[in-house]
Design brief:
The protein is α/β, with parallel strands linked by helices. The protein is 35% helix and 11% strand. The protein folds into 2 domains: 238 residues, von Willebrand factor, type A domain (Rossmann fold), CATH 3.40.50; 53 residues, no CATH class. The chain has 10 helices and 8 strands. This is General transcription and DNA repair factor IIH subunit TFB4.
Amino acid sequence: MDDITGKSFLTTSNETFQVPEETPSLLTVIIETDPIRWRRVIKRDSCKDPLRKVIKALIVHLNAHISLNNSNKVAVIAAHEGKAKFLYPDFGDFSDSGSNGSNGIAKNGHSSSHQYLKNSNIYRQFKIVDESVLKNFDKLINEDISAKNSGSSENNGTADNNNNKNQGHKNVIPGSISLALTYINKLKMLDDSLSIKARIIIMGISDDSSLQYIPLMNCIFAAQKMRIPIDVCKFSSKSTFLQQASDTTNGIYSFINDNEIDGIIQYLSTTFFIDPSLRKYIILPTDVNIDFRASCFLTGEVVDIGYVCSVCLCILSRIPENNICPTCDSKFDLKILSKLRRKPAFDLNQFRKKKKLNPSNNGNGGDTNGTPTPVSTPLPSTPGN
């Protein structure tokens, strides 16, 4: 006790201590919300609705993030078939008396929490976020079901509708990242005095598509320039493109197997809960086997050496037969194509054949060029011998 009351612990009346304020954080989560794809990929008897299970775990993660700081913000974007939509904040229809405004607060104080939350007597900010996410998620699924039912009743409408959805689903992740970056930039531009840190978490289940490469790389470089890390929580199969996204932006990439989906809340509350400023002090899961090679836009195979379109930077493993870029429909120069298709003047295979025909030695103890092998020099004789 004498040491504690020493002079080094005493303060004068002029000295003041100020506790530094923690910078608020914005967590933006992008989740793929195609229930058919989730059920098709994750086939488990104990988990009949894996997407809803992941949504519930995500809500717990969002509430934990809000509880760290009263100024923390969250945003949830649904990467659905061919479109990206906010689940929170709610930017939907404001005519409904029970709908939330852009800040997630109900207009008249009445809410339909009993339809989505088991206990409505929870922390107000938790209630606003949870209700908005669950309500907009159910609305998105119901709209999808009604659209499919109406499309199936039309003649030849189902096939066209499915083709359009498949084409749109290929670019759903880059579009969602672009929407998230736009929302983050908007918050920073509205108030210059607002100092906020931002990061993005992608919860994906779809496979890579070659059409994603260019728009996804544009989003990656934009996030890197804005110093926004992209964390990836990947299900089903590994994604080379998302691995590159997390590595380039100093984020975290974690692959979750199908039998580990029951422990998704542990992954979110440990690996993805750590603030980027604290990650240098903690041992995080890393993946050293990251493939930075691009994939061909025609075959989808990984390319070591290939061709690049000078207009759209499309990467090709071979020259198209119609001499037209499959991405931007630009016509390639025939003179340049003829040079690229020309065989090299030096045939390496023919050179190897000639080398094999030559004997290994010429019978004089030399090599194939006739150069004699060096012989040891005899020692000089000593006098008297």
